[in-house]
Amino acid sequence: MNALQDKVCLITGGAGSLGRAIAKLFAGEGAKLVLSDLDESALATARDEIGSERTVAVAGDVTRAQDAERMVDTALAAFGRLDVVVSNAGNFGTVAPIGEYPEEVFDAVYRVHVKGAFLLIRAAVPKMADGGSIVIMSSVAGTRGDPGVYGYITAKHAQVGLMRCLAKELAPRRIRVNTLHPGPVANSFQGAVEADLSGVIGRDGTEFFNEIIPLGRHAEPGEIARSALYLASDQSSFTTGTMLMVDGGMSA
Fold it and tell me: How many domains are there within the chain?
């Protein structure tokens, strides 16, 4: 289909399950890729899986302004332009009552999801091609509140505010900005979340989530990647400032 033919796409969290799924799909649609992650070994593996001739890997921390700038500059040096930014780096934190929720965990989660997205996009926007796309990976958590999930849910809500500000500022340049909101995904990130939750609620966390998802199951990473493709490509040419829910009906 070549929906991203020769588009240059920067994906953070590129070594994780969702990042790899998005990168593989984008590559199959003709994109040139810059993948970034903290884990250099996993990042190299992801690059090799996709094909190094169209993929550049750059290790970095999105919470550091100089690293964010280096990611953007890597795209320009390798491919001469930047069309799509997928802000996908993430961490979860923990689940705990408000009186016991650690301040340092709250700060760490907010720093990655909100400050990290802000720094990445701030670095990217002046150098992006007009008519491009920015996709911020939020979550169904960005539409709801649940006791104990103070860092993650607060950060995911904040990403929506960031997206809405950007969508209005960048519309004159035809750069579309949207948030993508997956429900629970069958991967190691969600598995760690559910293991943590199991200890809090006293029952299997995976079964709990499947019961509250109307479609009755977790998403596969490829299903989320297809939604990211829609937002990244010209298929969504009149879509900006929106929250795309891919959550099996969980937010309905």
Answer: 1
- Looking at residue 111, what DSSP letter applies? I
pTM here is 0.95
List the structure tokens of 209. 């989530």
Q: Tell me whether residue 200 is in a domain.
A: no
pLDDT tens for 101-126 read: 999 999 999 999 999 999 999 999 99
Of residues 101, 110, 150, 152, which has the active-site annotation? 152
pLDDT digits (tens, 9 = 90+) for 139-159: 999 999 989 999 999 999 999
Residue span of the structural domain in which 129 resides: 8-187+220-246
Count other Cβ atoms within 10 Å, centred on residue 206. Answer: 18
Put the strands of the sheet holding 176-182 in their side by side order.
55-59, 32-37, 8-12, 84-87, 133-137, 176-182, 243-246
DSSP assignment string, 12-68: ESTTSHHHHHHHHHHHHTT-EEEEEES-HHHHHHHHHHH-TTSEEEEE--TTSHHHH
Annotation marks residue 110 as catalytic: no
